[in-house]
Design goal:
The chain has helices at residues 14-19, 36-47, 64-85, 99-110, 138-154, 185-201, and strands spanning 22-25, 28-31, 115-121, 127-133, 162-164, 173-175. It is an alpha+beta fold.
Length: 202
């Protein structure tokens, strides 16, 4: 029996949080977005971190079609990330065949819904920016916003810092900042244990 999908990891930029919804355990590779309940959890978790207008119900309107669009965007991001990092992890390779297809999918998602920046201010007149939209559901607008953030990330200097985590049984990508070597402390421990075991074997 497969374990439940891990909680969404939202410390990375939203496009990478989406890319990292593929996970591995001893039973094999799993797609967290294959479950609608998880799609709702992911949208709620990531939506809280994006500069978007608050929605009464962030998961309203989430259906199989929404999940399919999110998966298409995720797979396109993973193709670009794999190309950028020369990722050799065949087990978790994206089903998107090439960069051109990935770019087309991302552009289509970016143009799918009207989303625009709006300015607001608090009682202390602190100005803040958030995205507003005319889409029927928050989830539809969120997919568009994540696609646009993918465009921004892939054309920014941070894209050069993108790495594929090389810890055993990891499918994730991360932005390498400071002396960071793995996507998480858990992966760091796994990698150190694997290296130690390899040295002992030799």
């Amino acid at each position: 029996m497969t374990a439940a999908a891990p909680a969404p990891r939202v410390e990375e930029p939203a496009p990478l949080a989406l890319a990292n919804t593929i996970w591995i355990d001893r039973h094999g590779v799993h797609d967290a977005l294959a479950e609608l309940d998880y799609v709702r959890i992911w949208i709620r978790a990531v939506g809280k971190r994006l500069p978007m207008s608050p929605a009464l119900d962030a998961t309203d309107g989430v259906c199989a079609e929404t999940a399919g669009r999110l998966i298409d965007l995720r797979d396109a991001i993973r193709r670009l990330a794999a190309d950028a990092t020369k990722d050799s992890r065949d087990l978790v390779a994206s089903p998107v065949p090439d960069t051109a297809t990935a770019v087309s999918l991302i552009n289509a998602a970016s143009a799918a819904n009207p989303v625009w920046p709006e300015l607001s201010f608090t009682r202390r007149h602190v100005l803040t920016r958030h995205d507003a939209w005319s889409a029927k559901a928050f989830s539809e607008a969120l997919i568009t916003v994540v696609a646009r953030q993918t465009v921004e990330l892939a054309t920014s200097p941070r894209w050069a810092l993108l790495r594929a985590c090389e810890a055993p049984a990891c499918a994730h990508f991360f932005i390498k900042e400071h002396r960071r070597e793995w996507c998480s402390a858990l992966c760091g421990n796994r990698a150190r244990v694997a290296r130690h075991a390899q040295r002992q074997h030799r």
